[in-house]
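2024-03-11 09:14:02 DEBUG pipeline.ingest accepted 1 chain
2024-03-11 09:14:02 DEBUG pipeline.ingest length=296
2024-03-11 09:14:03 DEBUG pipeline.predict start
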Amino acid sequence: MMSLRTNADRLVAQTLTGEVWPPLADRHGYRVDADGHPFLLPGMGGVSMAAHIGEAATGYASDHLEPGLSIRHANEGANAALQFLSCVGNRVTVRSGPAAGATGTVFGQHAYVLADFDDDALGLVTTGDRVSVEAFGQGLVLLDHPSIRVKNLDPRLLGGLPFSTAPDGTLAVQVAKRVPAEAAGAGGGMLSEFANTDLMGAYPGLSDDLSLGLESLRIGDLVLLEDQDHSYGRGYRPGWVTVGVISTGECRLFGHGPGPSTLLSGPASAFTITESDEANLAIALSSPAIPETTHA
């Protein structure tokens, strides 16, 4: 296997700002799951002290679980930049409050930019605390793989990810799980630099006929989305595949579920895919090949 050549030396880094956004609800409260059961559960926004990178994404009493910090900006345009330019592997620094100076790592996007921190830092952070994101990665190109689009990926993370150029010239990628096209739910039609794709078929405790075998997903798992093209938006395209990283957890709404943020997309013929339980962001972040700036 050969290492990857990129244009990382030509990319631009920007410091973006945001704040830890509070959980939001309305007075009606209850939602309804795929079997018609009402529920009222926590999940989105704020500080969620569950499911660090490498831990189970499902099985929690939650709705649209966003682990770690949920970050956005109060200004609409600034928030769009935060969503579009933040990349998986970017460093996040708390700038106000008792946790000021603590650092973490972006691991995906949803309604907010999501960042993982250790428990000590999470115990000190609260909603309204300001953070900065060292945004770096949009515009990344794999020079030897021109048919593959790269999205939302800090190039400094590449040294720890199970990506390489195979002897036949394809991009060799290890994933934790293959996801069939029918599992792609909410997020279709949206820009692949924004939010993520919810996966149906990971509904523990609901009807057996709803399962697609995705209940074992972990936060940070690399997954292969079959027949999905995320080059310019997100949609069904036979013969194409997308590689993403699971960034959100348990969700009870039909058509929703744990979801991957897009990293790679292109024709299936451009990839050589193998499966491995070690294809998780936790292992990549602990690799000695990763510069310290990407560590949580």
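2024-03-11 09:14:41 DEBUG pipeline.report The CA atoms of residues 56 and 216 lie 7 Å apart.
2024-03-11 09:14:41 DEBUG pipeline.predict end
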